[in-house]
Write a structure and sequence with these properties.
There is one protein chain. This protein is of the alpha+beta class. It has 2 domains: about 160 residues, 3-Layer(aba) Sandwich (Aminopeptidase), CATH 3.40.630.30; about 180 residues, Aminopeptidase (3-Layer(aba) Sandwich). The chain is about 30% helix and about 25% strand. A 12-stranded mixed sheet has the order 1-2-3-4-5-12-6-11-10-9-8-7, with helices on both faces.
């Protein structure tokens, strides 16, 4: 494989940020930034679009209100709502640049147009506004690393949306699969028992171990495509988090000296080890998306994130946590266990899930412009 060693131009140059942003004029909506008071009507439009496009999920009010949290977000500059002459919300946009990005700086664009107002050019102009704002955020980051502007779409979503992204210069970069596994009957067999060896211990999630879980996640996903570290504030934003369905694996007697000597141990983990903090080495954090039960036609527990520290791979820490989560879903009467996976996951997770009885129910993709 040939590695491109061409030096990067400064981020301000690569981003080519516009000095000012042009508001959409197509279709005639009146535009302004989103406020917390808009959350109910914004939710209604987002869910109307989701149902019209047969997306496998809807959102709840708490999820929308959470968007207004986070010091890294400036909704006055990073959002746009379009209202028709009668005051009805017909389109929306939001752009976000995650604060924890280190080796790549990313800006994600989100938006939608009411199905009755499609075909008027609103979506095209709205995407242009989003892309312009994304370039402004990337330039302002000052991070001299590769950059990305990303958007997401369901595989089975409107083909017009895919074409919109492609015509705007976005290319498909990654595919994701939504997987489900029945928890009752005999079709997938029992949830496996996963014994842990040595000083590894499976424990329920607890608030006092949450920071250690964040550090484990940042280590586990360091070699995953498109992943960047999460700050404490990012990590804390889990509106639908289900602690009763979440499990951790800790090393009760880690070899601190060996870990500190390893070049793979990050600075935050090293500081925690020196301070005698607990070491989480595997985790399964789950969420409860009750509103989606009717959309999917069954109840389920959702594994949001799953992983194991790289130094502990092969010791079944993630599998033990996942199995514990699946048993907790079943104990609460959930019919399925559900999760989402990158189809090119470097840890071989897709094959693991297939061996556990998970099968694909839907898919999505990420389009991006690489800078």
């Amino acid at each position: 494989m040939t590695v491109d060693t061409t030096p990067l131009a400064p981020i301000a140059e690569r981003a080519a940020a516009p000095a000012t942003l042009t508001l959409p004029t197509a279709g005639g909506p009146t535009w302004r930034a989103a406020t917390r008071d808009d959350a109910p009507v914004w939710l209604a439009l987002r869910n109307h679009i989701a149902r019209a496009d047969a997306e496998p999920y809807v959102e709840n009010l708490e999820e929308i209100e959470e968007i207004f949290e986070g010091a890294w977000r400036d909704m006055a500059s990073d959002s746009l709502l379009g209202f028709d002459a009668d005051g009805a919300l017909v389109a929306w946009a939001q752009v976000e640049c995650p604060p924890g990005d280190v080796t790549q700086v990313r800006a994600f664009c989100w938006g939608g147009v009411h199905p009755d107002r499609r075909g008027e050019g609103i979506g095209r102009e709205l995407l242009a506004w989003e892309s312009g704002r994304a370039r402004q955020l990337l330039a302002a980051s000052g991070k001299e690393v590769p950059a990305r502007i990303g958007v997401f779409a369901e595989d089975d979503g409107p083909a017009s949306r895919h074409r919109l992204y492609e015509r705007a210069g976005f290319q498909v970069r990654r595919y994701y699969s939504d997987l489900a596994r029945p928890l009752g009957g005999t079709s997938s067999g029992p949830v496996p028992d996963v014994p842990l060896t040595g000083s590894l211990r499976l424990v329920p999630w607890s608030a006092d171990l949450d920071e250690a879980a964040r550090l484990a996640h940042n280590d586990a996903f360091r070699d995953h495509w498109g992943s960047q570290p999460q700050t404490r504030e990012q990590w804390a934003q889990r509106v639908c988090f289900a602690p009763e369905w979440s499990f951790l694996v800790v090393d009760a007697a880690p070899d601190v000296d060996a870990l500190l000597a390893s070049p793979d141990t990050d600075a935050e983990t090293a500081a925690a080890l020196r301070a005698g903090e607990p070491l989480v080495v595997g985790y399964e954090l789950a969420s409860r998306y009750t509103e989606d039960f009717a959309v999917r036609g069954y109840s389920f527990g959702y594994t949001d994130i799953l992983g194991a520290r790289r130094a502990y791979r092969g010791r079944k820490a993630a599998l033990a946590a996942l199995a514990a989560g699946m048993r907790a879903f079943a104990a609460d009467g959930m019919q399925f266990a559900v999760l989402d996976v990158d189809t090119a996951n470097p840890s071989g997770a897709h094959g693991l899930y297939a061996s556990l009885g998970y099968t694909k129910t839907s898919g999505s993709r990420m389009f991006s412009i690489e800078l």
